[in-house]
Structure formats: C-alpha cells, structure tokens
Amino acid sequence: MDHFEYVAGELHAEQVPLSAIAREVGTPVYVYSRATLSRHARVFREALSALPAVHIAFAVKSNPNLAVLRLLASEGYGADVVSEGEMNRALAAGMRAEDIVFSGVGKTRSELAAAVRAGIGQFNLESEEEGVELSGIALELGRRATCTLRVNPDVDARTHAKISTGKAENKFGIAYDRAPGIYARLSALPGLEMRGLAVHIGSQISDLEPSRQAFIKMGALMEALRADGLSVTHMDLGGGLGVPYKAGDALPTPADYGRMVAEVAADWGVTLMFEPGRVITGNSGVLVTEVVRVKQGTNAPWVVVDAAMNDLARPAMYDAWHDFAAVQPSGESMTANIVGPICESSDTFAMGRTIDAVKAGDLAVFRTAGAYGATMANTYNSRALVPEVMVDGDKWAIVANRIDPATILAAEQVPDWLA
Ligand code: LLP
Questions:
Q1: Separation of 170 CA from ligand 1 center, angstroms?
Q2: Which residue, 198, 267, 270, is CA-closest to 239?
Q3: Which ranges in 242-328 belong to alpha helices (H)?
Q4: For ligand 1, is residue 59 a contact (CB within 6 Å)?
Q5: Closest atom, ligand 1, to C-alpha of 278
Q6: SS3 call for 302
Q7: With a 6 A CB cut-off, is 275 part of the ligand 1 pocket?
Q8: pLDDT (tens digit, 9 = 90+) per residue, 179-205?
Q9: What backbone phi and psi angles, to 5 degrees, belong to 108?
Q10: Which residue stretches of 8-127 are H helix?
Q11: CB-based contacts of 410, cutoff 8 Å, min separation 6
Q12: For 34-280, which CATH superfamily applies?
C-alpha cells in the first residue's frame, strides 16, 4: 500500500497534487512519500517482532537520498553500504557507525581503512583474501574489525538473472563447502573478530522457498562452525524481498517473510540481521513525466515521454514493468508503446500496453520507482540528472536538485594541446 492516490481526478502524493510539483520543479522528477516510507519501515520491523534479537540495515543502494536515509535513521534503521560514498551518506544522515554493515565484493584497501577508522559495525567479507587484508589494516590502525563471512549457498532465487546472487556461478561470497575452513582461518587472525555468517541470494524475490532453503543451509553451516568450537553470534540474512510492480501482483508480504524466518531461525541463538532495500523504498516513489508527443506508429501509437532510460534504467536493464498512469486521467484508455527520447531502442518503458489515454503535455507517472530509480540515473545523451522531491502531508521539498547539463559540461576541459 502507498500514499499515491487520486483525489478529485488528480493523482496526489499524500495531500500534494503532482501537477503542483511538476509545475515548480519541472519533469522528469522523482516524488517520494514520507508516510509510505515510514509505513514500510514500521511494517517490516513489525514483521520481525517475533524474533528475539534483530538488527535492520537498510540497503542504501536502493535509494541513497540523504532525506530518505535521515527518515530511516529516525525509524531506528542502520545501513547496509557497498562503498565509501554510501558509508559517508549513511553517516551524514545520522546513522551510527556501529549500525552500519559494509558489504560488497570489491571493497578497496582505502575503503576498508576508511571504514575501520569510522568504526563501522560489521564487514561482510566476501573472500579469504579480503579478510587477510582487512586484518592487516585493522592492526595497523590499532583496531579489530568485526566481521561476518558471506557464503554463497548455491540456491536459485528464481528472479531475473541479472539480480540473482546466490548461485555457485555468481561472483558473490565464499563457496559453501569452503566456508568452514576459511571461517576458522579468519577467526585466528588478530585483526578480525569473526562473529557470524551472511547470505543474500538475490533481489525482487517473489517466492519465499529459495530463501527458506538458503537459510536452512546457513543454519546447518552455523551448527557445523559451532561444533568446531567457533563463535557465531550474528547471522545476516540479507535483503531481497520483492514488491508488486503490476496492479494485482500477489507477492509474499513482510509478515509472510517474518514467519518463514521465525520458523527457520528462531532458536539459532543469534542476533538476526536484515538488509532490506526495495521492500522499504519501492512503492514509496513515483517518477513524474510529461508526454512530449504522441507519434503515429505501425501497430500502436508511440507515447514519447520526457523521462528516459537514463532516469529510470530498470525497464531497459531488466525488462522491468512499471505501471504507467496519467496524473489527470480522462477516463479513456489507449493501447500504446511508451518510450523516452534517448537514441536507442532499449529506451522503451512498455510495448503494446493498455494505458490511460494521454496526449502531448499531459503528466503521467511510472509507479513503484522509489527503489533503484534515481540512484541508477545517469546523464546519457547529455541529459540532466533527475531531481527528487519528498512529500510529507501537505508540504513538500526538493531533496535532490536537478543537475543541469551545463554543470556537467563545466566539469570537463579541453587540454592545451587541443586548444
Ligand atoms: N544486501 C545485499 C548484499 C545486496 O546486494 C542487495 C541488493 C540488498 C541487500 C538489497 O536487496 P533488495 O532488498 O533491495 O532486493 N538494480 C536492481 C537490483 C539490484 C540489487 C542489488 N543488491 C533492480 O533495479 O532491480
């Protein structure tokens, strides 16, 4: 559920008509609903309330906007970060260093050092090599780094191949069978405090069974480590819970997920850690766009909008579906192809889709764009970097400015020898 609803014939974000934001900020523009974000944060936490000890680290990559992070910090969330840039955002938003988890397969030496200096709460190690390097860095800095070992459980998450991470052929984590030996060796290093295991099998997961299988395997591994006399006090179960993108899609709810986790893990005797991203931010945001023109097509009209694959990459990258709706629907519908202005055919949002009838100048939204939307935007075709707005009741504010092509141009220079 979200707080984007029609009031008197116009789509509103909470109490704000989207046309008011479009008029002042221009389009395309992302609009987030504070009430929806808070609600999702609370629903997810509530879904885990039967578990004895829980730490939630919001996956910053899904929506790293500073205002979004500040809001989630105020809901008691920590952060799951994958770069120094994300770490600094989480800290700037007021998250406590000890509530931050540092994930990622390619943390550099300087990122590891910066994170040790900042006092980051947990490193999810993705290799023995990384653990050895981190131990050395921590000792040099007179610290010990608290870690888990990310394990690849070789389970198929049954999601899009480009966002699956838990199969043996994926780059993530340590092979399941090699984990006990590596965990034991890393536990003996003086610069590390190994406290558990981490797993994350993929994103936009729409079936809980693969996660359940992965968690059962992780529980067995935890028992094996303990039987070897090794300490396991924390188990990080990652993120990945999917959200409905199409009206009518039925997905497992956070409550279903919480029940499944409780069945598998309630008696593990650990702090359970979670890294939700999309389930918190996904339907907390829409991308508002204006129809540039409707061009006659062979099979169906082309609705050319002013948002493009550089603003919302998911359809081009993952063939993702985002519902499209007019801000002020006329009540008529049409079947059309929806495309952006970028000069390649992957700049396609939908083909042959039945949508609200629209014409040049109309405003429309792509729904469920709060996760992996603005954060994946770029400036391809020398377009602006898309701005972001947050709504709270009847007030709203720009939370990320549009970065104009002129600003980007100003960062480039022609060397003397070309002048
Ligand atoms: N933890 C780790 C280690 C991850 O790699 C991810 C996402 C998450 C947590 C959060 O997953 P979530 O709860 O949001 O599913 N750009 C793609 C999604 C990439 C996900 C990458 N990792 C998309 O637009 O669908």
A1: 14
A2: 198
A3: 254-265, 278-281, 314-318
A4: yes
A5: 14
A6: strand
A7: yes
A8: 999 999 999 999 999 999 999 999 999
A9: -85, 165
A10: 18-25, 34-47, 66-74, 84-92, 109-118
A11: none
A12: Alanine racemase (3.20.20.10)
Q: Which of 102, 203, 208 for a ligand 1 pocket mutation test, highest count of atoms within 8 Å of Cβ?
A: 203
Contact status, residue 99 vs residue 121, Cβ threshold 8 Å: yes
Q: Pick the closest to residue 183 from 172, 195, 168 (CA basis).
A: 195
pLDDT attached to residue 162: 87
Q: Domain 4-32+282-410, what architecture?
A: Beta Barrel (2.40)
Residue 158 predicted with pLDDT over 90: no
pLDDT tens digits, residue range 304-328? 999 999 999 999 999 999 999 999 9
Contacts of 368 (CB under 8 A, 6+ apart): 243, 244, 245, 282, 283, 285, 286, 322, 323
* Ligand 1 contacts CB of residue 80 (under 6 A): yes
Would the pTM count as exceeding 0.70? yes
**How far is the centre of ligand 1, averaged over its atoms, from the C-alpha of 219 (Å)?**
22
Give the residue range(s) of CATH 2.40.37.10 domains in the chain: 4-32+282-410
- Direct distance between the N- and C-terminal alpha carbons of the chain, in angstroms, rounded to an integer: 57
Distance of alpha carbon 69 from alpha carbon 95, whole angstroms: 8
Q: Which numbered atom of ligand 1 lies nearest the CA of 205?
A: 15
CATH 3.20.20.10 boundaries in the chain: 34-280
Look at residue 28 and tell me whether its pLDDT is greater than 90.
yes
Could you tell me if 66 and 45 are in contact, meaning their C-beta atoms sit under 8 angstroms apart?
no
If we measure between CA atoms, which residue out of 72, 29, 86, 4 comes closest to residue 374?
A: 29
204 lines ligand 1 (CB under 6 A): yes
Q: Nearest C-alpha to atom 8 of ligand 1 is from which residue?
A: 239
Mutation to probe ligand 1, out of 37, 44, 55, 61 (largest number of atoms < 8 A from CB) = 61
Active-site residue numbers? 343
Beta strands in 133-173 (DSSP E): 145-152
Q: Give helix 109-118 / helix 128-140 axis angle, nearest 10°.
A: 50
